[in-house]
Write a structure and sequence with these properties.
Strand content: 5-15%
Number of helices: 14
Order of helices and strands: HEHHHEHHHHEHHHEHHH
Structural class: mainly alpha
Largest sheet: 2 strands, antiparallel
């Protein structure tokens, strides 16, 4: 039955005056914006599986449980005495992990991409302050894994905490970032010559990104102890003089993530200027790593060390040459105060 005109006018005036709305014109809640995230990135975030290699497939329910377990571990860690001040910042990470777990559980089995609300991705990967908290808590979480969730079988201690931002950064908004458009052939010139020595098949779909990540891992491997020199390496990188090499490894891992997300057919890779600057500023740590490895090889030679030394040296030269056009101080070592400005 149609409303009388005077009643319709009265209701219209009331709506205008008090901001009321009828069932007909009530605003529907905005639908969340979704981002298609590679399944392998979501898997790598919560497992100890290699990001660059072929991952062992795990079902959606298993992966969702892993996300929920990590959320529970982090929640209990930040709720301990002495950590209460970090609880508010950490809670957004916990909630994002749980919501992402729900999306994973509701997805189809083994789909290559899973749609995740952009808001959750940005909470997890876009919050620099919260991620700093998460990284700070990493060592505590790993040390107390058995106590946090004693009744559940847990995966080996993963590297998901300090790689969280790297795994998911390519999926957050880049509106405020400046990028270099780097031709794929530039990256091919750097990494293709060393793939065989890295034991990576050049025909693999993501061979270049695998090479970038392997190069980062090699920086850390260079400092690991040998049977003859067991004290050259300190597992706690936070207090170690090789922290710079670890940070450079993270830069190479983000480079790998961006190449991987761009896809094997992309002619150009968008690399943030801040990432390129970070690589330039920390690249001297790569030279320090293979210099350290060279000394070990001279004293206690091994085939594995020799191979690693060869491809690290070649990749270092390739990066300095092919990335020179994107560097602020090409030919120099900006992060190395002893040789800054030199060649």
């Amino acid at each position: 039955m149609e409303k009388p005109k005077f009643l319709a006018d009265l209701l219209g005036s009331l709506r205008q005056r008090f901001g009321l709305s009828s069932g007909d014109d009530a605003q529907k809640p905005e639908e969340p914006e979704y981002v298609e995230v590679l399944r392998e990135d979501l898997t790598a975030f919560v497992t100890a599986q290699s990001y660059g290699g072929v991952q062992k497939k795990i079902g959606k329910d298993h992966m969702a449980r892993l996300w929920e377990n990590q959320a529970a571990a982090f929640s209990q860690a930040i709720d301990k005495p002495g950590q209460r001040g970090e609880f508010a910042k950490g809670s957004q990470i916990v909630n994002a992990m749980r919501n992402i777990a729900l999306e994973i559980r509701n997805s189809q089995e083994f789909v290559p991409v899973i749609k995740i609300p952009r808001e959750e991705i940005e909470r997890l990967a876009g919050s620099r302050e919260a991620l700093a908290t998460l990284q700070m808590m990493d060592e505590l979480i790993m040390r107390e894994n058995a106590e946090i969730i004693p009744t559940r079988k847990r995966e080996p201690p993963p590297d998901h905490m300090h790689l969280a931002e790297i795994r998911l950064t390519p999926y957050i908004r880049d509106d405020e970032e400046a990028f270099y458009i780097v031709p794929r052939e530039t990256l091919e010139d750097i990494f293709e010559p060393v793939l065989i020595d890295m034991k990576i098949n050049p025909t693999d779909t993501h061979a270049l990104s695998m090479g970038a990540e392997k190069l980062g891992e090699s920086l850390i491997e260079a400092y690991k102890p040998t049977a003859h020199e067991p004290n050259l390496y300190d597992e706690n990188f936070a207090d170690n003089r090789h922290t710079g090499a670890y940070l450079l490894k993270m830069n190479f891992c983000e480079l790998a993530a961006r190449m991987r997300k761009a896809g094997p057919d992309a002619e150009n890779i968008f690399i943030p200027q801040r990432l390129m600057s970070a690589i330039e500023f920390k690249l001297h740590h790569m030279r320090d790593a293979f210099t350290h490895l060279q000394r070990k090889q001279e004293r206690y030679p091994s085939e594995e060390q020799g191979t690693r030394l060869a491809y690290m040296t070649q990749a270092y030269a390739g990066i300095r040459h092919r990335f020179a056009q994107y560097f602020e101080q090409p030919g120099s070592h900006p992060g190395d105060t002893m040789t800054f400005g030199g060649t």
